[in-house]
Amino acid sequence: MRDVRTELIRAVRAVLIASGVDDQVEAVVDRSARPEFGDFSTPAPLRAARVLRRRPIEIAEELRGRLEALQLPFVAGWTVSPPGYVNCRLDDGAWAPTVIDQALELDRGTPLVIPGEAPPRGRTLVEHTATNPNKAAHVGHLRNACIGDSVARILRRLGHEVEVQNYIDDTGVQVADVAVGLRHLGIAQGADEPYDRYCSRVYVEVGRRYEIDPDLVEERRRTLREIEAGDGETARFVKELASRVVDCHLATMRRFDIGYDLLTWESDIIALGFWSRAFELLRETGSIVHVTEGRHAGCWVMPSDGEEADDDDAKVLVKSDGVATYTAKDIAYQLWKFGLLGRDFRYRRWHPGDADSPATTTTGEAELPAEGFGRAARVINVIDARQAYPQQVVKRGLARTGHAEQAEQSIHLAYEVVALSPAAAEALGIPLEEGRKEYALSGRKGIEVRADDLLDKAWERVGEKAADAETATMLAAGAVRYYLEKFTLSQIIAFDFDDALRVTGDTGIYLMYSHARAAGIMRKVEAAPGPVVVPALEGAERALLHGLDGYRHALAEAGAALSPSTLCTYAFELASTLTDFYEHTEAIVREQDPARRAFRRRLVAATRATLADCLWCLGMPAPERV
RNA sequence: GCGCCCGUAGCUCAGUUGGAUAGAGCACCGGCCUCCGGAGCCGGGAGCGGGGGUUCAAGUCCCUCCGGGCGUACCA
Fold first, then answer.
1. Which of A34, A341, A422, A611 has the lowest CB atom count within 10 Å?
2. Which pLDDT does position A130 carry in this prediction?
3. Domain A504-617 is classified in which CATH homologous superfamily?
4. Interatomic separation, CA of residue A493 and C1' of nucleotide B12, rounded (Å)
């Protein structure tokens, strides 16, 4: 069977139809608001009253009769309460063992697909991280990576075929800036200074010098042109620089258990002529127009929907100097992602010797089959909300070139940025403004909290109590991830050190601690064989069973909404329910009745398994002890 | 100007796509270690920005106003 709630929804839907209401009325089933009503309740009769033109309470009585007649094996009885709810009380002896068994059978090798509902056909491509390879990753980049990684995990857990890509913009202004700085400013790398941090420092300094040194600005222009051209000394220098920073980023993300299937390089997109091919497609379909006068004179632009050429919303794709904009290359990339471009990369392993290494695109010798990459049915781009407009243009590019279906399956998973709380801003030496609640990060100005530094801080914090260094490493990474994932995507995170490094309350530490506690009980109480006999349930036990039963629903919901925070909320509730059980029922080690002891032990085992599964989806460790 | 997002307890945030009495963490105050791990638990006070509307039912949907953020580049 599926989870209890899904079964009840099916049953309610069936009796609604039998009563003459088709799908006009949704079969809503929720946990009962109060225990005295039962385990689950449906307000469907209230909604059906309008359609049937009858009193809700009468409809409720009728539905109750029909539901009773279904004789669902896990249901003890149905009641009606005014003004027109139908309530269900479960048969503990029937539903509890099923819920426990299902939790104990959780296996990450077996997707949690709902029986009868096959996972979607085709590949889902998730692009995330995409940090410019010119500086150390900061907490904003880390939010992107955590969201993307968890979405990928959740979808995989639900049986989707997922490919994760990290886009490397190695031809943009930002990397050019650092190249200029490295070549002309003579700043030395510190002895123990990691390369990405060194680049961060150079990046800030070169930004300052631009203000006072016009020659340096000219040098940037020249550098960009040479990068665009693709071969020559500068291009090689920049590729090397970007590669080294990418390695730093990969190492940083690996500390958070974040990995990738493929690195896609913008320089490869240019070198392999992706844009020129996309340009042909756009031109042939009339998706773009060449503007001869006005402020866009000499440019190729994509007009906005339903307006004439060169209106205010038109987006420039080719500048008057003939160079394609970033958005233009993004359209080409997006067409490739769906296998619509008619061109492909070549592929090899990024670091052949390293088992954790992703694959990478290359213009050199192909070592991996091309069929393994791209060709997506659905594309999810994890990109911050500020880029909604260019992402819309990318989507429009697909629609205009005749790929309405793929445009529909192009999802900009927008999330709000990470900013600094007043306290964090003050700690970084930023002057505070009256009434201002958040302060923007800026890699360019050096105003940032680096991902590695944050993790180091967390490690020191949890290390005070952790069993050993290895445990501290797990706890620190899990704590930081939870902090960055628990906010809804549309919420700006005003990053605060106290909140991020907290070890009590609604934190990743609490979740991992709960898991370790459950694991500890299992070490202390030996497993007992035989069938589960369900005793008279205490409140905390019933709550725990409901928590376990709700996992599939929560996971499916998080997957449908592409929302890790939904799963965070679920995880914290489950952990809290476990704590409640732990604190307010008799210790299992002291339980004398063997049947009850066995039942309670299995209940804890099922909870541990569910929590571990859930933590995996959130990219968090499930430690056996802390 | 136009578009998107945010506004829920002193602070930081949830709120199951419209359901019964709006939750949690932090902070503050007061309790709980002869008890499977106290990174815990129990108790205490206070809230849906304002105003209309739709509905049996609105934090949730519509309109409007007020605050705040972001976008609206031949930057990425």
1. A34
2. 97
3. Isoleucyl-tRNA Synthetase; Domain 1 (1.10.730.10)
4. 10
